[in-house]
Automatic annotation (TrEMBL):
It holds the Pfam family PNPOx_N. It comes from the Bacteria. PANTHER family: FAD-BINDING, PUTATIVE (AFU_ORTHOLOGUE AFUA_6G07600)-RELATED (PTHR42815:SF2). Residues 1-125 form the Pyridoxamine 5'-phosphate oxidase N-terminal domain. Coiled coil: none annotated. InterPro entries: Pyridox_Oxase_N (IPR011576), Split_barrel_FMN-bd (IPR012349). This is Pyridoxamine 5'-phosphate oxidase family protein. The lineage of its organism: Bacteria, Bacillati, Actinomycetota, Actinomycetes, Kitasatosporales.
Amino acid sequence: MREFVARQEMFFLATADAGGACDNTFRAGPPGFLHVLDERTLAYPEYRGNGVLASLGNIEENPRVAILLIDFFRDRIGLHVNGRARIVDDAVLRAAHPRLPADGVPGRRPVVWVEVTVEEAYVHCAKHIPQLCKASRDSGGDGRAWGTDDARRKGGDFFGAAVGGP
């Protein structure tokens, strides 16, 4: 499982607040951005995103999380991970795990990490996982980049749901 996790460039994260209202979000980064710290512990860096902070807020209220990793490109297999999360300051996690890369995403350093104690992990069979092909980040020509605050470059109001939208 360590090698599988180390190859992944994305996962889906499910959280819920204290009242049970759920949120599911997507996390992505270079291969290995989800770190295996030991036999029962994973950690991933939190970077500035859309500003909603739903996942971190939910984790503060309710530590239960679910992570779904799916390899669409090579093995066509998935891994479900259920556990308890906690938010850890970057300096604290690095002191405990000095082998964490200093610059996992070039030019960006997380302020906090989410550390997940794994309670359950199991395979998601390949039967209905499609084989996908990777495209270059630049292939769409839309200028989206890591770390931008530009609403248009982030996808903006794609569905026209904002007041006064199309």
